[in-house]
Design brief:
The structure is a homodimer.
Chain A: H1 3-10, H2 26-53, H3 57-68, H4 75-82, H5 86-98, E1 102-107, E2 110-118, H6 120-141, H7 146-168, H8 173-181, H9 185-188
Antiparallel strand pairs in A: 1-2
Amino acid sequence: MTPRDSDTLARGVPDLESRLHETHHETLRLWLRLLTCTLLIESNVRTRLRGQFKTTLPRFDLMAQLERNPRGLRMGELSRRLMVTGGNITGITDQLVAEGLVERQPIPEDRRAYAVCLTSKGKRQFDLMAQAHEQWIEEMLGALPAVERRRLHGLLGRLKSGLNERKSEPPPRSARKRVVERRLPREKHA
Amino acid sequence: MTPRDSDTLARGVPDLESRLHETHHETLRLWLRLLTCTLLIESNVRTRLRGQFKTTLPRFDLMAQLERNPRGLRMGELSRRLMVTGGNITGITDQLVAEGLVERQPIPEDRRAYAVCLTSKGKRQFDLMAQAHEQWIEEMLGALPAVERRRLHGLLGRLKSGLNERKSEPPPRSARKRVVERRLPREKHA
């Protein structure tokens, strides 16, 4: 398929891609299409979570991470996995605790920290939602034939690796220089 | 590339995909990977927009749509293109108007409506941001070779068409029946 074919196929509804000029580079086109697909699926999931389970996507995502980790997760681990900042997560956790869906448990090895876990009520509620959620995703992504889904999964895996490698690269030269020049007090007195 | 290879490549950093069990279907895997890639790129863009231009992603996206439509957009058109609900957009527009970056203009054919446009100050500021933004995207998506970017663009185009077709399908039978049965008052008195 040529890029022009896929453009024609994807046209029709005005969305984030509507802002593209003829002169825009293909990386920007790719990014806006990636974002558009994500938003289309996400907004469908949000609507259905609200309609069928009176809940929100951040609450569902948080419970999903806890279901995967029955021994619980510290707030920092949770926030890394959810890819959002801490503030939100504390608020959502408080809500879920108040509703008896989640609980905070002390960590024997670390007095100052605690782990967040699903309660059994939370587990039962999550299982119902997870089953419905997987079916919605299946309906939506089932629009692509299996062979294309596998290809897409592979390509996105390569994109993700590239993005993570970029993140873990050493900081640019100017920043590195500063680190080298700044001696720690401990070294001075060694 | 087999799915296993791409899993290995994409592993390492805990993220939304960490919640997957062995038993989860590949459509769910695909969705969580799509979402993870989007969030990785989006969070990078948010950080840089804040750091370099003291602005937010929703403000940038709104200005981008106006730049593409120099004659202005009505609020409804703007909200459809931005794929978000109206409330946010009104608030952001108010802010941008107060800063002299955007203005509301009357529409001659429709007294009750107005179009939102970039001011020339807004256009200048947007051009600077857009140039930097395109470079960031190029840096991030440049991690994939051009041939794979084109393939990804095509596959996402097919996914998007499938999602839009689903949206425009007729409502399920039960809903249709209700519409047919409910007579409009105008018809009664015709």
